[in-house]
Amino acid sequence: MLALIPGRANGGAFIQVVTAERAYNIPYDLDAYQKSGFAEVQIGNSRFLRSGAELNIQTERLFLTGSLQYHNPTPIAYDIMGPFRYLPMECRHSVVSMDHELEGELMLNGKAIDFTGGRGYIEGDRGRSFPDRYVWVQCNCFDEPCSVMASVARIPFAGMRFWGCICIVFWRGKEHRLATYKGARVLARSGERIALAQGKYRLEITLKSPGGHPLFAPDKGDMTRIIHESSNCEARFRFFIGKKEAFDKTSRHASFEYV
Question: Would you say 166 and 157 are in contact if contact means Cβ atoms under 8 Å apart?
Answer without folding.
Answer: no
